[in-house]
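Input record (one chain):
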Amino acid sequence: MRIGSIQISSSPVLALAPMAGYTDAAFRTLIAARGADLVFTELSSAAALSRAAGGQPSSPRATDAIIQVGTGGITGIQIFGNNAIEVASAVGRLRSLVESGKCAARLIDLNFGCPAPKLTRNGAGSALLADEKKVGAIVQAAVKAAGQIPVSAKIRLGYKAKNNIEIAKALESAGISAITVHGRTAMQKFSGKSDWKSIGEVVEAVDVPVFGNGDVNSPADVGRIMDVSGCAGVMAGRAVLANPMFFLQAREHLRTGSFTPTSWEDKLKFMHEYLSLQARFGLPFHVAKELAMQLAGGFRGSAKMRAELMMAKSGEELTAVMEKREEGSRAP
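The corresponding structure, as predicted from the sequence alone:
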């Protein structure tokens, strides 16, 4: 698959979705080592990023932490905004960081898919899907500002009603290099079932690579969404939080029709590795606790373990709680 100037040899190309509060540099590093080709940062505000452009005051420390890049895989920085000038300024700042060697990201992703009210009430995220011309203008400005850095976009099927084909064509006309489609409208949020056939409508409508997203809950779903939609790549998010072996299992399932279950030892090793990277990337302890809570689910006694994890005040206490689980037991 080619995304602008980026050539990816894997087939299919597997991507880790951007998830606020989870896809920090440490998490992305470890998931890239476990089979993800593309890893995306938490979404960042174009307004915050643009404040550092043109010699203006630097962006908030939180934004600088979000855009730091781990190792392995291809990192895309996802941004949101509802103003073409502001988005272009933010992209220009990212481009300068990349070209100066201060940031190792290789892709910029525009968020037109998030249904969270904190974005949509300000006319950003999935609210923009109601205005195809504005989406096109934002993308055109971002692509121009990005120079040689490819720009991708994440969308839904529409805001209130489907206009997935029209939006996809507007994106392609404006110079987008790849599109990820979540198979629900914004108003559906995460209710109902992801419409993989409508993702296929986008695949047929454009020539750029399309990633399928939504209800990819099992490693076996990677092959299923590809069969239904014809997408060239697959993006998964929430399922990976509970199962760090997800992408390796998806590749195994595509090869053999089955996959090796995730063991508790796999999860415990992941947590140890995450904690070792946490200090390196300067991440606060509470993010490790949130991750541990995601890993500790879906088995008998998980509620008790989560209650104990909530009381932990250090990485050592987190792992001590997790290590009490019987060795060799299987995690779903």
